Amino acid sequence: MTGILPIIHQMAHQLPCQALWNPRWTKGLGLTGGEEHKLTRKEIREGVTKIEELLQSYNLKNGDLPLIHKELERKAIEIID
């Protein structure tokens, strides 16, 4: 398990989860006060907002993204071949 997990988050789960995923006992997890978690979520929200604005500017919807990805992948393969 990797990622940002505030130490206080661990107390939100039942006892087995607290023991299994305790950041103090899980190798690779660092202890945070939660501020890093908030900053990361803020950056993700800002990125989502930018994507939504971009989609609106081209009159697209979120459901169009797989189609756009498939078309870009097809064009990339054409360029490579």
Task: Measure the end-to-end span.
Answer: 39 Å
- Share of helical residues: 55-70%
Largest sheet, in brief, is:
none
Give the tally of β-strands: 0
Oligomer: single chain
Question: What order do the SSEs take from the amino end to the carboxyl end, as H and E?
Answer: HHH
Mean pLDDT: 77
Which SSEs are present, and which pair or pack?
Blueprint (H helix, E strand, L loop, with lengths): L14 H6 L14 H23 L7 H16 L1
Give a verbal description of the structure.
With 81 residues, the chain is mainly alpha-helical. It has one domain (7-80). 56% of the residues lie in helices and 0% in strands. The protein is built from 3 helices and no strands. The chain has helices at 15-20, 35-57, 65-80. The radius of gyration is 20 Å and the shape is elongated. The relative contact order is 0.10.
Compact description:
The chain is an all-alpha fold and 81 residues long. 56% of the residues lie in helices and 0% in strands. The chain has one domain (7-80).
Descriptors for this entry?
mainly alpha; 56% helix; 81 residues
